[in-house]
Amino acid sequence: MGIPSNQIPTEMRAKLGLKPTPMKPQKRKSGYQQPTISPKRRKKIQAWIDEQRQTGNGVFMPVRTYSPNSHVHFHTHARRVRTIRSAISFAMVLYPIHPPAIVLITRYSQQLLDKHENLPMSMKPVVDEIAAFAGVDDKDPRWDWRYAQERAIDFGVRIELVEEVA
Predict the structure, then answer these.
(1) What DSSP string describes 67-112?
(2) 147 or 50: which carries more pLDDT confidence?
């Protein structure tokens, strides 16, 4: 019986001619880890975001909307909604919309959603924040919500006032 080899100090290990202390395997961090983006791709994405902000009507915000079919923990869902709503509230300061109005919300993403069910539900936090900023409910008959989506290299949402109804 002796001292376990992993408890022998490094200096003693060298004198005894033993190998260096074996490294303990790193524990894997739990949860989602943000993928790394290469600088070249990051530059391309930033150029696309800048182009979207300068072209077209309305306001563009680089936020990601999620499919209602992505089943996640309720805290994760709440955090996602809070992030989207805070970004949209910032956009509403720049581009206020008040009823009566026809509003077109365009979703930019790498994958398209089902336009009949999933697209409107993925835009629910956006719609809620626009209506909350205007001080009315989103089911108010003076609002007419229209949805569109396009494939893109990154995620984003464009909010456009199609027509103000008198």
Answers:
(1) -TT----HHHHHHHHHHHHHHHHHHHHHS---SSEEEEEEEEESSP
(2) 147
* Closest-CA residue to 148 (of 140, 159, 135, 163): 159
Bridging pattern class, strands 59-61 and 156-164 = antiparallel
Global pTM reads 0.70
Give the span between the Cα atoms of 164 and 79, in whole angstroms.
Answer: 33
Write out the H or E segment, with its range, that includes residue 61: strand 59-61
Give the integer Cα–Cα distance in Å for 146 and 166.
18
d(CA 150, CA 34): 24
Percentage of residues of the chain with pLDDT beyond 90: 25
Closest CA to 128 of 155, 154, 105: 105
- Interval 67-124: pLDDT, tens: 888 888 999 999 989 988 988 888 888 788 888 889 999 999 989 999 888 999 999 9
CA 40 to each of CA 36, 37, 127, 154: distance values in angstroms, whole numbers, following the listed order: 12, 8, 34, 14
